[in-house]
């Protein structure tokens, strides 16, 4: 049974439909989607297209009108909803921390419900606070109102992870934070997921966030219809239609540069004594380009050699005649 797993399990949606009573059209219309175990899949689409409804059917906060949901091969609709929800982490934009409980009590909510002994809960709370970069001794006994919005969202993520569920549903979990905090949370979350390998469905209306976090992205239109379902690189390289292209905007090449690392492109020669600007192996090609532009140089030094502007263009598949655009595109 999937509730014994802590690493990700596969999620399958089969002809999933939700028609709210009194609404002219289904909010979610006949959606079929396969989410591989251990992957982070982002649902991205405009407000009202059915993202939240799709997600809430998976933990049965909303009952489907028709269709099937399988988690780890198990039919979700045959399980007890309360039981089910204890094995699916859920983090939402509004965070939903209990105001009169301490941070430790908030994070320990599900483990407590599952009857874990007090010392195990307390150890888990401290482990999770450290994981989301909040010093346990400083935060465990505080109340939610004593935390900033960004700190509360980290607690929300920690709470969703508390019972080490194989599946996490995250509905715009960083949406309420300012851009700098959000970027910080995204970076931490990418690192965290590399360790955890949970199956995560992450909802956002922010395509940049989708590219940054997703192993795969489902671009949704009205009725949760899937316009394209693929890796960020594949969607950027080859959007399925005008609708998908409109999410990407004008700077697909720059977005693809941001997805690729300096270490993925072959460097040539030795930079020794060249005086070229330095980039690290794990910098993105976008960062390398920024450094080249800032130094007025068409090449830079990497730990393994010299990375040229031409090599960078080749890496993103820009043809010679289009090279101007890479530099002059709006940022
Ligand atoms: N409880 C509800 N009752 C009736 N209609 C709803 C309810 N929740 C959502 N809807 C409608 O379903 C559609 C999809 O909503 P939602 O899933 O919240 O979209 P998203 O998360 O993409 O913004 C919208 O038209 C919304 O108004
Ligand atoms: Mg929503």
Automatic annotation (TrEMBL):
Keywords: ATP-binding, Nucleotide-binding, Transport. Its EC number is 7.6.2.9. GO terms for molecular function: ABC-type quaternary ammonium compound transporting activity; ATP binding; ATP hydrolysis activity. Residues 11-248 form the ABC transporter domain. Pfam families: ABC_tran. InterPro entries: AAA+_ATPase, ABC_transporter-like_ATP-bd, ABC_transporter-like_CS, P-loop_NTPase. CDD domains: ABC_OpuCA_Osmoprotection. It is an enzyme of class 7 (translocase). Gene3D superfamilies: P-loop containing nucleotide triphosphate hydrolases. The keyword Nucleotide-binding applies. SMART domains: AAA. The keyword ATP-binding applies. It comes from the Bacteria. PANTHER family: OSMOPROTECTANT IMPORT ATP-BINDING PROTEIN OSMV. Belongs to the ABC transporter superfamily. This is ABC-type quaternary amine transporter.
């Amino acid at each position: 049974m999937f509730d014994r797993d802590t690493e990700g399990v596969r999620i399958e949606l089969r002809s999933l439909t939700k028609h709210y009573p009194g609404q002219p059209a289904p909010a979610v219309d006949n959606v079929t989607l396969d989410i591989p175990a251990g992957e982070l899949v982002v649902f991205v689409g405009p407000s009202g297209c059915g993202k939240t409804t799709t997600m809430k059917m998976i933990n049965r906060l909303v009952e489907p009108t028709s269709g099937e949901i399988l988690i780890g091969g198990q039919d979700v609709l045959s399980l007890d909803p309360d039981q089910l929800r204890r094995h699916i982490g859920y983090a939402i934009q509004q965070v939903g921390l209990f105001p009169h409980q301490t941070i430790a009590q908030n994070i320990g909510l599900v483990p407590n419900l599952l009857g874990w002994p007090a010392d195990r809960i307390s150890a888990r709370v401290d482990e999770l606070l450290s994981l989301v970069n909040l010093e346990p001794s400083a935060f465990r006994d505080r109340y939610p109102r004593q935390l900033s919005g960004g700190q509360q969202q980290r607690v929300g993520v920690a709470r969703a992870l508390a019972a080490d569920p194989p599946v996490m549903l995250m509905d715009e979990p960083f949406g309420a934070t300012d851009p700098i905090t959000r970027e910080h949370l995204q970076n931490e979350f990418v690192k965290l997921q590399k360790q955890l390998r949970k199956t995560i469905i992450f909802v956002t209306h922010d395509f940049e966030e989708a590219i940054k976090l997703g192993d795969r992205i489902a671009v949704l239109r009205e009725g949760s219809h899937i316009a394209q379902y693929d890796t960020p690189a594949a969607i950027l390289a080859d959007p399925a239609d005008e609708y998908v292209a409109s999410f990407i905007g004008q700077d697909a090449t720059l977005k693809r540069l941001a997805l690729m690392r300096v270490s993925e492109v072959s460097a040539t020669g030795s930079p020794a004594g060249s005086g070229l600007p330095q980039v690290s192996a794990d910098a993105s090609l976008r960062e390398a380009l920024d450094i080249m532009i800032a130094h007025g140089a068409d090449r830079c030094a990497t730990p393994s050699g010299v990375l040229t502007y031409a090599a960078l263009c080749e890496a993103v598949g820009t043809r010679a005649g289009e090279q101007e655009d890479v530099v002059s595109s709006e940022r």
